[in-house]
Amino acid sequence: MTGTVNTEDKNNRGENRSGAGLRIRRVFTSSDVHPYAELEWERRDVVMTNWRDGTVNFEQRGVEFPAAWSMNAAQIVTTKYFRGTVGAPEREWSLKHLVDRVVGVYTATGRSHGYFATDEDAEIFDHELKYALVHQLFSFNSPVWFNVGTGSAQQVSACFILAVDDTMESILDWYKEEGVIFKGGSGAGVNLSRIRSSRELLSSGGTASGPVSFMRGADASAGTIKSGGATRRAAKMVVLDVDHPDIEEFVRAKAHEEHKIRALRDAGFDVDLGGADLISVQYQNANNSVRVSDAFMRAVGTGSDFGLTSRLTGEVVATVDAGGLFRTMARAAWECADPGIQYDGTINDWHTSPAAGRISASNPCSEYVHLDNSSCNLASVNLMKLLKGDGAFDVERFERLVELVVTAMDISIAFADFPTEKIGATTRAFRQLGVGYANLGALLMATGHAYDSDGGRSVAASITSLMTATAYRRSAELAEAVGPYDGYSSNAVAHKRVMRKHVAANKALRTVGALERPIHRAATRAWRECLAAGERSGWRNAQASLLAPTGTIGFMMDCDTTGIEPDFSLVKFKKLVGGGSMQIVNQGVPRALRNLGYRDDQVEAIVDHIAEQGHVVGAPGLKAEHYPVFDCAMGRRSIAPMGHVTMMAAVQPFLSGAVSKTVNVPEDATVEDFEHLYFQGWKLGLKALAVYRDNCKVGQPLSVGRAEGKTEQGPSSRAEEDRARGPVRRRLPKRRPSQTVSFSLGGAEGYITAGSYPDDGLGEVFLKLGKQGSTLAGVMDAFSIAISIALQYGVPLETYVQKFTNMRFEPAGMTDDPEIRMAQSVVDYVFRRLALDHLPYEQRAALGVLSTDERAAQVAGEDASQVATQVESYAQSAPPAGSGAKDVPARTVHDSTELMELKQGFVADAPLCVDCGTKMLPAGSCYACEGCGSTSGCS
């Protein structure tokens, strides 16, 4: 694709000199074949089931997709993006309908607004865009697919930034504006630092409430809209400047609520994700971030004091130890993952439009950072589609694809609707775009680059530099064809300065290997042409690029990795056309092995090992120096936290916006580790950083309770009669009834054999876990004997249930027991299971251990005790303990996260999808569901 008027230059690209519109040449298509005709299409049935209860969530049969598209991609597009009532004639049933609906609006708008030199150029644009979409070369963000070409508002932006002033009218407008944005399927961020602190006075003489108090109302509003929304959960970001007098209250707000969640859980309340009692917990619908200044970070480094300033007068009203406040931030994040951190100095140093105001906030995932009351529409390129068969990166097609995408994104601003007049005015005046990419992690692995390596960072930086240079070069060409952005004239000096900063960063980039050298050369040329074109015509867009999470659209493009993320795991759960599923090793693995020089027979042996174990450690014939190439975000060989930070730092100088990414750290990470990562993020020039410690939040474990205040009603069994007489051991007879339960927990297989007295009561428990003769097996045997003897001496089972449920250690997580979906440890599971099998409803209810049906009855407001008698024991016929687990069927998995847990025997700390029940995948700074495409706020 080119940006010419009537002539083309020696690079076959040309320049726009007459302002008569763009000339477009074909790159992906040919004039005699429609892009749809190049693909094989097939009809499929999409039936989405919630595996937790077997209910059918969605059904549409006979949908049409390219044969090359995965079933997962087809399901997500059908359920999320097809418009019209299911079963009605107007319901979309083919990907062609969806793409025609969207691209038709883009092409028609481009024609009417003078973007194309001729009708032929418009037709070529139409075909090129359709080709790129149906071949999964890129995707627009979700609101485009939701809204464009429908009867609803044509909202195309996923990211919004609002503004709140220190007036009640402005605060109430904030609540309303957020609600409208959430209803449209997007997210919003806001900085509350203009609101006066709780230390300051109102004009009436009273004391102000402070911004944290107003966060409660906004949080409740977001939670309500999330519950009723049809497209996605609400996503919001709340930012407070580090010099605000209420900063410590803000920093501790969510950590305090996390303590509340734990107390409620321990008291037996339902605080699972979506639980009935979680609504009483505040601030759970927002990501919180502290906006730190360079002055504050320098004070942290030197151990100096730092002043907190009045919102009304700007005077210092309190002085704090900077290092102490920084540690408070780190400790709160260590406890509950909030707050994140945004580096104000770096953000505003790269601001192209400072005459219009400072950048004070971000969108919920922190990749869009620009003016208040503005928006940004996103699109992401699938990098693996640009990797050629010989292992080289297709530089030419990448440049042309970025030009195509940027042209389309800019056209969308001409027809887009916006939630408020202020946002519409700012966006039309500054035309912020956010082109990015997905599948970087897959690309690096496939080409034999370790994610945490100089080579991997060099490849990523080169691609990012070329992407942004190409985007801004096209922006300058658009400015020549249809004019620069309205705010350019007052910001021309600043915009040019930022462009030169990008160029300087590109000049400082040092390539390492053969793959990125031609990419970097192309980037150098593109930046040179970008500056020349900008000097002549300015730029059409104040912002061009960022790196978004690409949650749902990443699945739509069949990407192995989202955004800038590394591979999550080496094995993947794949749905099959026609039903069923299978596990596969990611296709990038054999490609990487061949690029590293391994023979086909060696590749086959290594892949077989990965399929069995889920990791490369001990793979036959694999050299130890190649292990890092296959390091993933989670698992046996996971990337070190600083490896994620340095990758972010490598690409940040080549982005207009920021990087959406959460740095995961292990559960045993310290507060000092958080301090180190946050400080290094500032030194390395990041714009934003969020750090998440595994298992720091209460998200999924089932509610448990304590039998507090329970009064004895007299002996109800032979065991209680024995206790009344004193500690006398009551041995089991030689022949006694027993049942064996097989279970799987966090990838570990085990058995519970429970023996009972013939007349009444549990009398012994035997636990099988681990190989015969192992330390674990010996410990479990000793534990079983101790419990059994105590039971025979009359210690009530409910005492053990009270003591051992909620005990937390590995293995933990998902089980194959439909009555106990999550357990925090083996003993937690065992005593929940024993309670369900051997205790009456009243005792279990007091302990917080209920069956699935009983919980459902509670939620429905019914008498749960009426279904208690219908609960059948989950005990099944199983091989006796000690016979080995090889005859036990493998645990059923429902997505790639559970598959990784099963293979590697540990638990990924991710929530379950509230729509379909599968365990979600990390995507940027939030989560995305591989099963149905739902996200926790990302596009």
UniProtKB/TrEMBL annotation:
- Per the record, the domain of life is Bacteria
Q: Where are the transmembrane segments?
A: none
InterPro entries documented for this protein: RdRp_reductase_class-2, RNR_2_N, RNR_lg_C, RNR_NrdJ/NrdZ, TSCPD_dom
Outline the extent of the Ribonucleotide reductase class II vitamin B12-dependent N-terminal domain: 46-136
GO MF, one term, reads: cobalt ion binding
Q: Which GO terms describe its biological process?
A: DNA biosynthetic process
UniProt keyword terms in alphabetical order: Cobalamin, Cobalt, Disulfide bond, DNA synthesis, Nucleotide-binding, Oxidoreductase
Domain Ribonucleotide reductase large subunit C-terminal stretches? 157-692
Domain (TSCPD) ranges: 740-836
Entry's family note: Belongs to the ribonucleoside diphosphate reductase class-2 family.
Role, per record: Catalyzes the reduction of ribonucleotides to deoxyribonucleotides. May function to provide a pool of deoxyribonucleotide precursors for DNA repair during oxygen limitation and/or for immediate growth after restoration of oxygen.
The protein here is known as: Vitamin B12-dependent ribonucleotide reductase
Q: Which organism is it from?
A: Nocardiopsis ansamitocini
Top-level taxonomy: Bacteria, Bacillati, Actinomycetota, Actinomycetes, Streptosporangiales
Q: Which gene encodes it?
A: nrdA
